[in-house]
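Team,

Forwarding the record for the chain on the shared tracking sheet. I've put the sequence and predicted structure together so nobody has to dig through attachments.
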Amino acid sequence: MAVGKPTFPTMYPVPGFKLGTTSAGIKTPGRKDLVVMEIAPGSTVAGVFTKNAFCAAPVQIAKAHLAQTAPRYLVTNTGNANAGTGEQGMADANAICQALADAAGVSQAEVLPFSTGVIGEPLPAGKIIAVLPQALAALTEQGWADAGEGILTTDTRPKGASCQLDIEGKTVTITGISKGSGMIKPNMATMLGYIATDAQIDQPLLQQLVTECCDSSFNRITVDGDTSTNDSVIVAATGQSGVSIGEKSAGYNTFVAALRQVAVELAQAIVRDGEGASKFVTVAVTGAASQQEALDVAFTVAESPLVKTALFASDPNWGRILAAVGRAGVEGMDVDKVVVHLGDVLLTENGGRASGYSEEAGQAVMDREEIDIHINLGRGDCSETVWTTDLSHEYVRINAEYRT
């Protein structure tokens, strides 16, 4: 199940960024499950990572390596998260980094590892190391589509976004892929995301932009409220377009808006492909006294099992939305000022059901595949938007059978 048509966009190659995909047979024989990405010398790289205390071995190593030097290679395996694996997990991830470094002629610190899949099982590092030469041989700037498939786990479709901009008469490209379907409430980014651009950006500014873009995209999605042990987003800037992006440059605002849009498209694609999802739901909170207050209300509604099951049933049970708003922890909330819309239908005002509301009108909105819930708290000028899914029988089945 997924929301919308399974279309993969045109992916513009990014000069200086190559991708190679192969099969290591980690979980399923013959399945694409290993991706190597090559970043040209002289590029800058920035990243954000999960805040889960049980972060996976590859996350720990990637963070350490990124702090040491500019990465040249990224290696991603699916089918095994290499999380909760202790010292052996660290040794396995380091061995893969060393093997790739030896094969590519770079230092181990110039390799960042990433893993996604089952938590708590030993990583079959030998299978991965054995096929690294195949992945290197497959490297190409046109490799985005294969890589998009190679990083999937329970996803039903690859997720990509790409655009080209004209900045000072030159073409700048931004292209990215993401994966994620369940265990989605990022506390930094998403399950895995990779974005490349051929703009030239100094590393401190790139890190700032990555963090800001993730906060308004990947950090605004939730499928089930669970933050993964392996969440990572990496952005590489190769500089090969010849366009330099700085805070005072002519194309700065245009570039930042495009980077954010790519991140939003990748984040929303994760929600549309949420495990068992049949609805794409936007929860917009306005009139809040602070950004955090708006987020607290939005996430409480978006993650409420009762709201999400009503969405799955296409049941306009608006009382569940109101109850979620009420338990979001907003101090001193005046319920008489809270106004809730379901799509264009006014649900509540003055502390209760709107006088003009009808069950038929509410049902017409709930029957849609894409639904907007708008909550005005009537307390201030702050607003936030979160994207989520419904909660279906299929979500339970997928996660009940995940290891079988």
